[in-house]
Amino acid sequence: MARMFGSDYALPATVTINGRELSSPERLDYPDRQRSAIRGTWRPPAKGTYTIVATQGSSTKTLVVEITGDAQLGSGSAGLLPSGSS
Predict the structure, then answer these.
(1) How far apart are CA 64 and CA 24, in angstroms?
(2) 83 three-class SS
(3) What angle do CA 38, 5, 2 make, to 5 degrees?
(4) Which of 42, 38, 43, 12 is nearest to 26 (CA)?
(5) Is 83 exposed, middle or buried (0-12, 13-18, 19+ CB in 10 A)?
(6) I need a surface site. Which of 5, 25, 57, 77 has the fewest CB within 10 A?
(7) Cβ neighbour number for residue 66 with a 10 Å cutoff
(8) Per-residue pLDDT of the chain (86 residues; tens, 9 = 90+)
């Protein structure tokens, strides 16, 4: 899930994993709180290093994840805060 907040929370946003867009992301908008989020499900296909990038407007945040065990059994969560986030 990538959460956006601040004055430009409503700008379009994308999440990529190793350069490929997250498939079928769901965007959630909360205009009364000036917040939005993009969420989706991704499972690593194999062990390795994966670079997750959230982009909104001119802001980009990156998270690198190293999968060392059985990729099909693991689960996890990471927060990325692009745009007007702090």
Answers:
(1) 21
(2) coil
(3) 25
(4) 38
(5) buried
(6) 77
(7) 9
(8) 888 887 778 888 889 999 999 888 899 988 888 888 988 888 888 999 999 999 888 888 999 999 988 755 544 544 554 444 43
Long-range pairs of 26-33 with CB within 8 A, sequence gap ≥ 24: 33/5
**Phi/psi class of residue 55: alpha, beta or left (left: φ > 0; alpha: ψ in -120 to 50)?**
beta
In the numeric block, which tokens belong to residue 85?
């986030």
Burial 22-44 (b: 16+ CB within 10 A, else e): beebeeeeeeeeebbbbeeeeeb
